[in-house]
């Protein structure tokens, strides 16, 4: 179940005369209230963004909505390969077998048989027209995944952000440097509403992205500060060539003290990305401890082109 602290989201919500959110029926600690899918248009042909993970309630809601609107699907657009956004494709094609499905080809779900799913490509800047007043421009925004696409609703100055920006909390990512580049790119695209892959819509999407960028800088600063002082277990550590160092999980437990232990593995992924970014910048190194790898700041004059800040 989704966290009780999150606001409730109805199974279907008319967000505007031309936009309906359909919840995918898959709430959990990672998907929040569930994955958002969006049905755009007011005419006889509609465009769908994402397909959820294949819960029967989702395809039932979609079919009921289209029937009540006397409409059918023109096309489906996929933001990225994760199963909670693509898992509904089989039931979608079973219900609407002639629906073209567009997806960036940079990355596919590992369970996909390319002979089974014939995606049409999405390229950066590609235009999708739904009906009068709805023009979607695809924007390649890697970071959460390599293939991640956002969709700019040009007439509304709004952005469908996929999983790069969420309605609540912060997002996870595969590559921090790419993610930060994409956030800055997204920030310059629009000034209105953000429609995320999870959680409620965000009225000031640009401010939310700026909040994300500040949060990522805060996390990086926290990592550097911890590395400067060394871990609580430092006295017991024998690290070749380094005095102040931390294991990844020591950093996680220190920085995420107010987060449930069950979420620490997910947090570790984000901190590892920060450490890898700092390593690429020549600011930290990884060294082998007695039992596992440890991270430490680069000392001034070490030949790595960095400093201990």
Major sheet size, sense and barrel closure: 7 strands, mixed
Broad shape: elongated
CATH topology of the largest domain: Metallo-beta-lactamase, Chain A
- Summed up, the domain count is 2
Number of helices: 7
What is the C-level CATH assignment of the largest domain?
Alpha Beta
Task: Give me the side-by-side strand order of the main sheet.
Answer: 1-2-3-4-5-6-7
Helix content: 25-40%
What number is the mean pLDDT? 89
What does this structure look like?
The chain is an alpha/beta fold. The protein has two domains: 205 residues, Ribonuclease Z/Hydroxyacylglutathione hydrolase-like (Metallo-beta-lactamase, Chain A, 4-Layer Sandwich), CATH 3.60.15; 65 residues, Arc Repressor Mutant, subunit A (Orthogonal Bundle). A seven-stranded mixed sheet has the order 1-2-3-4-5-6-7, covered by helices on one side. Strands 8-9-10-11-12 form a five-stranded mixed sheet, with no helix packed on it. Strands 13-14 form a two-stranded antiparallel sheet. It is elongated. The two termini are 43 Å apart. The C terminus is likely disordered. Pfam families: Lactamase_B, WHD_BLACT. Its cofactor is Zn(2+).
Comma- or semicolon-separated keywords:
Arc Repressor Mutant, subunit A, metal-binding, 2 domains, five-stranded mixed β-sheet, alpha/beta, hydrolase, single chain, hydrolase activity, seven-stranded mixed β-sheet, RibonucZ/Hydroxyglut_hydro, Metallo-beta-lactamase, Chain A, 309 residues, elongated
């Amino acid at each position: 179940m989704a966290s009780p602290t999150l606001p409730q989201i109805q199974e279907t919500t008319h967000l505007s005369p031309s936009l309906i959110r359909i919840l995918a029926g898959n709430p959990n600690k990672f998907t929040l209230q569930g994955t958002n899918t969006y049905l755009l248009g007011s005419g006889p042909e509609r465009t769908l963004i994402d397909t959820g993970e294949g819960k029967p309630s989702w395809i039932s809601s979609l079919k009921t909505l289209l029937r009540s609107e006397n409409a059918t699907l023109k096309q489906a657009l996929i933001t990225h390969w994760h199963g909670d956004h693509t898992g509904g494709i089989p039931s979608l094609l079973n219900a609407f077998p002639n629906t073209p499905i567009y997806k960036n080809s940079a990355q596919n779900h590992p369970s996909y048989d390319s002979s089974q799913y014939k995606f049409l490509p999405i390229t950066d800047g590609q235009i999708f027209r739904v009906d009068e007043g709805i023009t979607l421009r695809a924007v390649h925004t890697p970071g959460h995944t390599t293939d991640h696409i956002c969709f700019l609703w040009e007439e509304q100055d709004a952005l469908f952000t996929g999983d790069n920006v969420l309605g609540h909390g912060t997002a996870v990512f595969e590559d921090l440097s790419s993610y930060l580049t994409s956030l800055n790119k997204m920030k310059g695209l629009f000034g209105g509403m953000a429609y995320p892959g999870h959680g409620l819509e965000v009225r000031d999407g640009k401010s939310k992205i700026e909040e994300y960028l500040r949060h990522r800088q805060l996390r990086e600063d926290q990592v550097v500060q911890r590395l400067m002082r060394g871990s609580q277990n430092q006295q017991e550590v024998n690290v070749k060539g380094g005095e102040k160092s931390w294991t990844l999980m020591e950093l996680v437990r220190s920085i995420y003290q107010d987060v449930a232990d069950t979420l620490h593995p997910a947090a570790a992924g984000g901190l590892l990305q920060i450490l890898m970014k700092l390593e690429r910048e020549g600011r930290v190194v990884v060294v082998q401890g007695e039992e596992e790898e440890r991270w430490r700041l680069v000392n001034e004059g070490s030949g790595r082109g960095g400093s201990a800040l």
